[in-house]
Amino acid sequence: MADEKDELQETELSYDQKKEIAKWFLLNAPAGEINYVAKDLKEVLSDEEVYNEAAMEAFPVYNKSHMICLEMPSRVGDVIVSSFSEITENEYLDPRTAQVAIVDHVKQICSKVRPAYDEELPSSYIEEFRSALDAEIQRYVSESYPKGVSTVNSVKGKDADGPGTDFELVVLITARKLSPQNFCNGSWRSVWHIDFQDESQVLDIKGKVQVGAHYFEEGNVELDAKKEFQDSTIFQSADDCAIAIANIIRHHETEYLGALEVAYSKLPDNTFKDLRRKLPVTRTLFPWQNTLQFSLTREVEKELGLGK
């Protein structure tokens, strides 16, 4: 038994095992916290080579999945890093300014920009629909998300030069509220695919919303809520399509936010009770009648903007 124990203690993880474990921690970091995780990982690993390789592989995936927003040099504008705007591994298109941002994923900065090439941009016909929708979504986001950023990308049929061809636009909305000094961070991400079907004159709309919140004062609680939507409207002029699509997105997102608010209003009465047995090992009854005194409920509601 002693020999087996010594053998287990002496077992060393392989290079690849260390790298995969490091990547897992980086990829699963809550919104806005990957750099804190990276700093701790560096110290724990004590292996610069393993860390650097894990970071080079994990940061691009994390940045795209979290749709981080980076400011472009000279305040040209902001670019959302996503798979929908990706031209190469380090180049991302901002269709609003027709600029391509060159991104350092590990530092999470936009180091420089270049003008987009003609082949990277949609045709004038598609751009008419894209820019009209972009303007309506910008208006909606400015009204609904104090720190929100949006973009509209053309992902299919972008070279169409007139009616008679199907095409697809993708709306991205991202908002974050980071307050690590108060032990609380939160994010909102929504992706809406709009499939313009020319023959049927129908717009098929599919969306996915993901809400995250991490509260880590005197504990470690994380929310990861997801919701998918499907809707449709008729194919109209560019301006009319934009208004209809923006109204549909506004309706579904507002409704979902309302559902979250209802769920959190019931948190003290229902959820806390489900998390604990009625008589804990301390043999002391939990004060269910006064659960609002606990900071977890208040802080998570506040972080998501659900508080009254």
UniProtKB/TrEMBL annotation:
SUPFAM superfamilies: Subunits of heterodimeric actin filament capping protein Capz
One GO BP annotation of this record: actin cytoskeleton organization
Keywords: Actin capping, Actin-binding
Pfam families found in the cross-reference section: F-actin_cap_A
CC per GO annotation: cortical cytoskeleton; F-actin capping protein complex
PROSITE patterns: F_ACTIN_CAPPING_A_1, F_ACTIN_CAPPING_A_2
Gene Ontology terms for molecular function: actin filament binding
Quaternary organization: Heterodimer of an alpha and a beta subunit.
Purpose of the protein: F-actin-capping proteins bind in a Ca(2+)-independent manner to the fast growing ends of actin filaments (barbed end) thereby blocking the exchange of subunits at these ends. Unlike other capping proteins (such as gelsolin and severin), these proteins do not sever actin filaments.
Family statement drawn from the similarity comment of this UniProt entry: Belongs to the F-actin-capping protein alpha subunit family.
Annotated protein name in UniProt: F-actin-capping protein subunit alpha
Organism: Brassica oleracea var. oleracea
